[in-house]
């Protein structure tokens, strides 16, 4: 068990969970092979390159001209998505804490990190080329976000880490895909970029939800207890960022990502993990199962309330040149 650095996890509960993960070593190896077989390995400078034998300066000039039309809500979404991606060091650390050593887990985490690193890079490079955001402001926000750290309560529980990554990969997929559709109406290149990023998030989602399915099969009671603690709501890592809530509000109003999307994600995972059908549980497991099955109804009520109370509002963000815009 040295491979999982058990010395860092003094309690028996965590040791038991880490042992379940160690038991999944071969599964991780197989799922990684399946993942890489489906993957298209693109690179930021390829996605953002002009057609061969065309003038690169003219290409950037035309890109900037087209990008001028990108709406303020789409710019805000791009800023927040870029920052979320650039938070990668936080996430790498969370996974690497449990999945270290010379294991397939560590190989997966490193591969995943290498893939994710291109997401932040391509969005950052696009913002640089297109000039749709105030880049020095964006970079300062990124600096503050990384400096602030990310210490969620769930980082001590390896099972919750996998429920979180399942939810989060799907959430970023939806957000990138919808931002791409919206911004792509004005400037097609960003549509293509975000389509590629979204597809990769979808493949990560497939990996993590499959891992947690196998955790559920091996240790259903503890797995359900962990899931019940995290599924009711997830805080995006940028929550401590200045203006995060207002940016998230813009994104909801633009129909890019909001509570309704989160409800669908939770529903899909409940179905994929067959949570309602799990049997032979102990008392704590049954309670957790019931709690999970009640989440969507509670989230519906929250979403209804939020939509009823929502009024037209004017926004302005320094990262989007402090230009005022109104939203319903
Ligand atoms: Fe990503
Ligand atoms: Fe991802």
Automatic annotation (TrEMBL):
Keywords: Fatty acid biosynthesis, Fatty acid metabolism, Iron, Lipid biosynthesis, Lipid metabolism, Metal-binding, Oxidoreductase. It holds the Pfam family FA_desaturase_2. It comes from the Bacteria. The keyword Repressor does not apply. Binds 2 iron ions per subunit. GO terms for biological process: fatty acid biosynthetic process. GO terms for molecular function: metal ion binding; stearoyl-[ACP] desaturase activity. Its cofactor is Fe cation; Fe(2+). Fe cation 1 binds at residues 85, 116, 119, 201. InterPro entries: Fatty_acid_desaturase-2 (IPR005067), Ferritin-like_SF (IPR009078), RNR-like (IPR012348). Fe cation 2 binds at residues 116, 169, 201, 204. Belongs to the fatty acid desaturase type 2 family. Homodimer. This is Acyl-ACP desaturase. It comes from Gemmatimonas groenlandica.
């Amino acid at each position: 068990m040295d491979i999982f650095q058990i010395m860092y996890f003094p309690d028996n509960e965590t040791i038991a969970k880490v042992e379940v993960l160690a038991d999944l070593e071969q599964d991780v190896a197989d799922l990684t092979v399946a993942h890489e077989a489906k993957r298209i390995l693109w690179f930021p400078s390829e996605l953002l390159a002009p057609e061969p034998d065309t003038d690169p300066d003219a290409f950037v000039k035309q890109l900037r001209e087209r990008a001028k039309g990108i709406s303020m809500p789409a710019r805000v979404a791009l800023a927040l998505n870029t920052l979320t991606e650039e938070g990668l060091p936080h996430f790498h650390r969370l996974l690497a804490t449990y999945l270290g050593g010379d294991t397939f887990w560590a190989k997966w985490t490193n591969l995943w990190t290498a893939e994710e690193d291109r997401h932040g890079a391509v969005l950052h490079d696009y913002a640089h080329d297109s000039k749709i955001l105030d880049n020095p402001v964006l970079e300062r926000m990124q600096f503050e976000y990384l400096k602030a750290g990310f210490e969620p309560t769930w980082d001590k529980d390896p099972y919750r880490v996998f429920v979180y990554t399942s939810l989060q990969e799907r959430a970023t997929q939806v957000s990138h895909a919808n931002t791409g559709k919206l911004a792509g109406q004005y400037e097609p290149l960003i549509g293509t970029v975000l389509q590629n990023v979204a597809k990769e998030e979808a493949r990560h989602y497939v990996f993590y939800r499959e891992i947690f399915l196998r955790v559920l099969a091996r240790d259903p009671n503890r797995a359900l207890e962990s899931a019940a603690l995290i599924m009711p709501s997830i805080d995006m890592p940028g929550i401590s960022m200045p203006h995060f809530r207002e940016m998230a509000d813009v994104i909801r109003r633009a129909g890019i990502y909001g509570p309704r999307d989160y409800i669908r994600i939770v529903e899909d995972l409940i179905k994929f993990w067959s949570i309602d059908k799990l049997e032979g549980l102990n008392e704590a497991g049954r309670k957790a199962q019931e709690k999970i099955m009640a989440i969507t109804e509670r989230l519906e009520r929250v979403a209804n309330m939020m939509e009823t109370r929502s009024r037209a509002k004017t926004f302005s963000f320094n990262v989007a040149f402090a230009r005022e815009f109104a939203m319903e």
